[in-house]
Structure formats: C-alpha cells, structure tokens
Design goal:
Distance between the termini: 89 Å
Number of strands: 3
Helix content: over 70%
Radius of gyration: 30 Å
Shape: flat
Order of helices and strands: EEHEHHHHHHHHHHHHHHHH
Number of domains: 2
Length: about 400
C-alpha cells in the first residue's frame, strides 16, 4: 500500500485541507477522499526514503502510544466519529512510523473492519493487553473509557520502568569509569614501572609482572582485544534472543543481588495493574491470565501464571492457584483472596499494584542513596590496589638502594 499527500477541498466547509492517505493507487486514493467528503485538488505519491531521519527514527516509544491513546479517547469521548477521530490524531502524531500505522488503520476502518481487527494487524505496535481492552471497549460501547485505561496503565508501567532504569544508570557509569581507570593505568603507568626495573636489573614482583604482561599485551594486540570484546558482545546479545538466553536473562533479573527485589516488585505491580485493567472492562478471568502472563514480560513468571491458569480452569480460585508459586510475593494471593470473598478482585489487584509501586519508589530512593558510597569504595579499592601494586615495588627498590 502506498502513501499519498493530498490537497483537497472539504465539501462541508468549502475550505482547502491537506494530509496523507493510504491507498493502492492514485485512483483508489481519489475514491477514498471522495468517500470522506473531499474534492481532490492535488495528489502526490510520498517517497518512503525522502527523509533520512524518518528512516532512522522509526522506533515507536511508549510515550508516543500513550499520547495516541489519550488523544483518541478524548476525541471519541467528545462525540466525534471514529474515522474522523483517527484522522485528527494522525495529523497530530509527530512520530512518522506511528502516523503511517494510524493511516493504515484508517484505511481498514473505512473499508469496514473493526477497530480491534485494524489494530491487530500491527502486533509489534499494539500489545495483546491493548487489543483485549479495545475489543472489550468496542463490545460494551465504552471504547473511550477503555482507551483511557490503556493510557493510564501504560503510563504507570513506563513510570516504574523508568525509575528502575534510572537507578541502574549511576552504577553503570561508575563501572565504566573503573574500567577506564584500569586501562589508563595499564597503558601509561605500568610501562614506566617495567622500564624502571629493567634499568635497575631487578626481577619484577609477581603482581606487578602480571600487570606488566597484561599492559604489554594490550599495547601490542589492542585490535585483538577490541575485536574479541565486540564479537563477544555481539554473540552474547544474539544468544540473549534465543530461548535459553531469554530464560537466563529473566532468571537473572529475578535473582540479581540488590536489584532482584526491584524487578520482582515491578513484575508484581505489572501483573496486578494489568489484571485490574482487564477485569474492570469485563475480560474473562482465563483470558486475563493468558494476556497478563505475556504482559509481565518475564518467561519465568509467565510459566507460573500459566500453571495458575490451568488450576483456575479446573475449578480452584485464583488466590489458591498462585499461592506457593515461586517469585509471587505473599501479599498477592492474600489480597486476591479478599477480593474473591467480596466480589471485587479487580479493586484488590489495583490495591496490590499501588502497594508495590509505592514500595518501588521508596526502595529505589534507598538504593540510590546507598549505592553511591558503595561504588566509591569499590572504585577506591580497585584504583588503590593498582596504585599499591605499582608503588610498593618502587618503595622496596628505593629502600634497597645503598648510598
């Protein structure tokens, strides 16, 4: 399907307007515009490669999807028809790739497809949670409310993930600095120590010799080191995309010291918030569990949710089904049990999500406060160890010199 930029006259207002349309040919684009109440004045096919930046900035961020959901919900809530609302959102969308997706959705909608089916053609953009909420909203006639819930859920999830990433940025920067300090000293200071020992015809101490040999190898074969690092990084990255790599990564997140508890609470909050949103719009329990299992984005927890779903299917309540599952925190089944007794499981899931989101905020602040002095101590130990390995042999040489 091709993209066409058009200038047309709006028959309702008599004003000129311009925009973009998706069609297989110019004739189809004309028919589409006429059907929408426009008289085409000029239509030109858009060159997909006309903008360098559009080719490299094709990622659709969570923020773009949140804004899209909010805008569409607002327009539908104001009483605008679906097609017109999508046209308006497309014109306001800054992300080129998302705008193209919305235009394709418009074409499908005007061709008679439902909104859910139109969104479902773009699974890399719209998640299964998004699609389930849209389908439920269409069925119940509360599409604008469903879209608002989608945006709220995406905002909560994006906010929590952003905070965890922010907490991990500082340690990564410090580790990079430690690495640079080691490389600097190996390439500049260590060779001078080697030369000093050679001039005095003294044997190198074991630790200093290891450092000297390492520095010598790095100077002589730096390109090998760079290639090995790049190749290792590339193959490790590719391995992480395999089934075994994904399981390793997901297990590591749940068990890594210091940050493991953050990830566990993140997944609990995501499970509860997604479950609440789906149940609130009328999605059945088993469908909720299936979709939520995929939404948590962790294969270890997805398997646990699948096992719980099988137990629910056989007649057990959800609280008993997830009780005892690894990595499910104790509060989750307890609160769900209260919700089952009161008939308000969705509300209890919302409270669970809020509890873990608040705990995440507090814990991230605590870790951010503690991690700075810890990393400073690590940096001092590494740098001090290298300085000691260099200076102590020099002091021993000076002490052994007879005047």
């Amino acid at each position: 399907m091709k993209r066409y930029h058009y200038v047309a006259k709006d028959l309702a207002t008599g004003k000129k307007t311009q925009g973009e349309a998706q069609a297989d040919s110019v004739n189809d684009a004309v028919k589409l515009l006429v059907k929408q109440g426009f008289t085409p004045l000029d239509i030109k096919e858009q060159d997909e490669n006309s903008s360098f930046f559009s080719s490299i900035s094709g990622r659709i961020r969570a923020k773009d999807k949140i804004v899209f959901s909010r805008q569409l919900a607002t327009l539908l809530g104001a009483g605008l028809p679906l097609s017109q609302s999508l046209h308006t959102v497309a014109q306001q969308t800054e992300n080129t790739k998302l705008r193209k997706v919305v235009e394709e959705i418009i074409t499908d909608i005007e061709g008679g497809k439902s909104l859910h089916d139109s969104f479902a053609k773009h699974p890399t953009v719209f998640s299964k949670v998004f699609l389930a909420l849209v389908e439920a909203g269409e069925a119940s006639g509360t599409l604008d409310d469903a879209l608002k819930r989608i945006a709220s859920q995406q905002e909560k999830d994006a906010e929590v993930v952003s905070k965890i990433r922010g907490a991990m940025v500082y340690p990564m920067i410090v580790l990079v600095v430690i690495g640079l300090v080691i490389v600097f000293m190996m390439l500049t200071v260590v060779p001078q120590v080697e030369q000093l020992y050679e001039d005095l015809h003294k044997p190198l101490p074991l630790l200093t010799k290891i450092m000297v040999d390492g520095a010598s190898f790095m100077r002589s074969y730096w390109y090998v080191v760079v290639l090995v690092l790049l190749a290792s990084g590339y193959f490790f990255w590719q391995w992480l995309k395999t089934e075994g790599g994904i399981k390793f990564k997901d297990s590591f997140k749940l068990n890594v010291p210091l940050f493991g508890i953050l990830f566990r609470k993140l997944y609990m909050a995501r499970f509860a918030r997604t479950g609440q949103t789906l149940l609130k719009v009328g999605v059945p329990m088993l469908d909720m569990l299936r979709i939520t299992g995929e939404a948590v984005n962790n294969t270890i927890l997805e398997l646990a949710i699948t096992r719980a779903s099988d137990k629910v299917k056989s007649g057990k309540p959800l609280s008993k089904s997830i009780e005892g599952e690894d990595y499910f925190m104790v509060l989750v089944p307890q609160m769900i049990n209260i919700g089952e007794q009161s008939g308000k499981v969705d509300e209890m899931l919302g409270k669970v999500a809020q509890v873990y989101e608040d705990e995440l905020d507090e814990q991230i602040r605590t870790i951010s406060t503690l991690i700075e002095p810890v990393l400073m101590v690590v940096l001092a130990i590494v740098a001090g160890g290298m300085v000691g390995a260099i200076l102590f042999p020099i002091y021993s040489l000076v002490g052994g010199v007879k005047i």
